[in-house]
Amino acid sequence: MAKPSFSVCDFGVTKYGEQAKKFTLKGAGGVVLEVSDYGGKVVRLFTPDRKGKLKDVVVGFDSPAGWDSGDPYWGCIIGRYGNRIAKGAFKIGAKKIKLPALNNAPGGIGCNLHGGQRGWDAYVWQAQPFVKGDSVGIVFTHVSPDGDEGFPGRVEAKVTYTLTAQNVWRVDYEATTDKITPINMTQHVYFNFKGEAGGTIEDHILKIAAKSFTPTDKGQIPTGEIRAVKGTPFDFTRGMRIGEMINAPSEDLAIGRGYDHNWVLDKGQMATGRKPRQMIFAAKLTCPLNGRTVEVYTTEPCLQVYTSNWSDYNQTAKGGEHLSFRCGVALETQHAPDSPNHPEWPTTFVKPGEVYKSSTEFRFGTDC
Ligand code: BGC
């Protein structure tokens, strides 16, 4: 087994004028993760196929300019609030909060998406790489001031990426605040096990440990219904090719132009009402062509699956490839979208004195 190691190099300047770096983490199990301190963005991620051949399996760019040319949040840390908040409005007690940034408008209906105009993905974070035992990793920290994008409270956030000798990429999130505020962090990596130039991910097989999902209105805001997946194109309980039903006649699929929905994980807090913080199996993605797999485990109650439906992205990725329609799939562990407006769902509000905690593992392997 190789020794875990890391190295660092310059990555260029962001459109906000911040100097970014890139870190290469070499795991003892063979997986290699290249990440930038620019929003924790994943630049490359090499995993072995069934013959042991490594390939970069994420969509990313060779410099901040790539991301800055147009960005559906490729591979970054999302904060302070991942996913949508209807009209950017919610209440804390009797106090009405209205976020100024309605940075997204599906169906022509404005909402706050992924933290607003300049979410946490668009900042250079403090970064501290480490080797600990047979793992290698990096600790990212960021301070979001009170009033950032309209959110109340100064939040200190910490995200740790760890690459283990078992080819697990673990993401641990922590945050504290000095005023009550909603926090819902996630990682927005887009996988394509054929490589980012490999075309569509419709041939990948996806299994999701969820018997229900949260349908949305035309603005992609949950209606409040928790609907069974049985008999719908959203039934991935036994594993299904992503492309199998993606074009089926369905109002819900039409709203997302494909899969862009939140599944309620069977063993998670939202489905069971039991306490959070236990690692549960969420999903498995398999590429039948080369055998690459990832299993997603998380402490979160839900999973947003997004099949990059708003392309052609008209962007050029690392190898000069054109990023095509459905070139990646994001498996975003999270609380349900618009949770601040659903007191009946597990809360995303964090109070002063509490520590927001969330963990997700991407366990890479192969199916023979
Ligand atoms: C959302 C999509 C959105 C995408 C932006 C996903 O997390 O679910 O609706 O278009 O992020 O990149």
Summarize the structure.
The protein has 368 residues and is mostly beta strands.
Number of domains: 1
Mean pLDDT: 96
Q: What is the CATH topology assignment?
A: Beta-galactosidase, Chain A, domain 5
CATH classification, class level? Mainly Beta
Q: Which spans have pLDDT < 50 for at least 5 consecutive residues?
A: none
Largest sheet: 9 strands, antiparallel
Protein structure class: mainly beta
User: How widely separated are the two ends?
Assistant: 21 Å
Summary tags:
368 residues, mainly beta, Beta-galactosidase, Chain A, domain 5, 9-stranded antiparallel sheet, 4% helix, 39% strand, binds beta-D-glucopyranose
Task: Characterize the structure shown.
The structure is a single chain. The protein is mainly beta and 368 residues long. It has a single domain, classed as Beta-galactosidase, Chain A, domain 5. The protein contains 3 helices and 28 strands. The chain has a 9-stranded antiparallel sheet, with no helix packed on it. The chain binds beta-D-glucopyranose (BGC). The site of beta-D-glucopyranose (BGC) has 8 residues, from strand 25.
